[in-house]
Each structure stands twice: as structure tokens, then as C-alpha cells.
Amino acid sequence: MKVKLSVSAIENGTVIDHIPATNVFRVIRILNLEFDTQHQLLFGDNLRSQKYGKKGLIKVSDKFFEDKEINKIAIVAPTATIIEIRNYEVVSKKQVEVPNEIINIARCVNPNCITNIENITPHLRIIDSKEMRLQCHYCEKITTQKNLSFI
Ligand SMILES: [Zn+2]
User: Fold this and answer.
1) Spacing, Cα 77 to ligand 1 middle (Å)
2) pLDDT at residue 82 tops 80
3) CB 93 within 8 A of CB 86
């Protein structure tokens, strides 16, 4: 499989490609890679992309993401591609899929929502995956991508 990478290859780990150009740091933050001292992190922003004009890219050595983390990536970077590399070979490459709903991943924007007051698991439905608008299962308030805060 041919993959053109703009920074050096990694032996084992994950490449998150086709991140919207301005969301690279947000993806780094939601994956808790900011203060991670175990994994080597390489990233680029405003890289040229034939498909999207400009894009961001992140590479994390010796790390493979779980579904919950991939769902977070899908919410802030719906165009992202997850490429898993083992022994310098691409073993899997797939575009993230925006889920229909996320449970215990992000908070409802409404400070008076029962999920923010009592010990109730936040449950948001994705009602618009382009603008990324999420509706609370409990109070029905809309949370937008801009004011989304992850758990
Ligand atoms: Zn709510």
C-alpha cells in the first residue's frame, strides 16, 4: 500500500491523517497526548493536501487508539483517516465514522442539565455531522463543536 508521508516514517504506531487544518492541536488535546511522555509524537499543520487543500497530520509511535478515542477524533476531525503501522507497514487504513450518538464521551453544554448536576452519564446524539451539532438525550439542548468539552 502506498502512503505518502510528509514527515519521517514510524516503526509502530498510528498516523491520523486528513485532520482539518485548524484542529490538529484540538485532536492532540482530546487524546491526552499533550503531556504524554511515553509516546513519540510528530505532527504537522497546514500541510498541502490534494483532497482538502490544507490538512493536519499526527503520528504517534507505539500507540493504537480504541473506539472511544476514535469517536472523539471523529467529532473534531470528521475527515480524518486512521492509519495503523506495524513494522513500517500499513496494516490498516480507515476513515473515521461519525457515530450517531456518544455516551460518556463529551459533556452537555447546559450547566443545568441533569448530567452536569447529578451522577448521570452524558448521552449526546449527533443531529448534524457537517456542522457538528449534538443534542442532549436528557435536556435536548444543542451542543456545538465549538463548545464541546470532552470527558
Ligand atoms: Zn443536557
Assistant:
1) 23
2) yes
3) no
